[in-house]
Amino acid sequence: SSVVAVAALQLLARYALSRPSYRSAILDELSPDHPDPQLISSLVGIMENAGFSVDVYGPSQITVDLYRVLAMKRYQFVLFRVHSAFNDGKTWLFTSEAYSKEKLLTRYVAELLSDQIAPARSYVGGEMVLAIGPEFIRRSSQGNWMGAVIVLAGCSGTAGESLPEAFVERGVSVVIGWNGLVSANHADQASLSLVKLLFEEKMTVGAAVEETMLQVCLLYTSDAADE
């Protein structure tokens, strides 16, 4: 799969240079299935060295309610290391909130009836969880993203562009993600390369995406040759 940037390209580097108080966040819902504390530590270190404060949300914190208020936290860069899936023309972001029919029909009945929330199951685990879709971003998320840059590191984040379009409507300037299935290791390597290029090399988003794909493709070509 390839990684694509959707919406207008911005010079992310100027955030670190002119506004050292800018904030970023990492949502790490994948850690129970694909733990990589070194990756998270490296990402945090790169962002902090660029002048950003970083909030890391672990699996227990990644709920429907977090997605609802995330835009209000005024992050300028958010990396979603979460499971996601493309179904019926829409991309759905997983939470770690366990699915139950009772919960859907009581607490989230309005969101269920308006196609904002659905049950989901990852390829790895057996437990069903709740997932939010583009309509949730449009209708139930609170606040405005105020030009933030978002990276959807899971599968099919930009497939069909349904989810990126919803984020852009709510004030996101750039959405970067995969347009198909991707392994966790492949996605993690790409995320690390992208963050280095944006925060250390101070590339534009477009240039960083192109260079990331070159680096990750070369890495996996080398790995295949070694095998």
Description:
There is one protein chain. With 227 residues, the chain is an alpha/beta fold. The chain has a six-stranded mixed beta sheet, with helices on both faces. A four-stranded antiparallel beta sheet has the order 5-6-8-7. The longest helix has 22 residues. The chain is globular. About 5% of the residues have low confidence.
Main features:
alpha/beta; six-stranded mixed beta sheet; 9 helices; 39% helix
Q: Major beta sheet, specifics?
A: 6 strands, mixed
| Radius of gyration from CA coordinates | 17 Å
Amino-to-carboxy terminus distance: 21 Å
**Count the strands?**
10
- Beta-strand share of residues: 15-25%
* Unreliable stretches covering 5 or more consecutive residues: 7-18
Number of helical segments with 4 or more residues: 9
Large-scale geometry: globular
Helix content: 25-40%
Average pLDDT metric:
88
Class inferred from helices and paired strands: alpha/beta
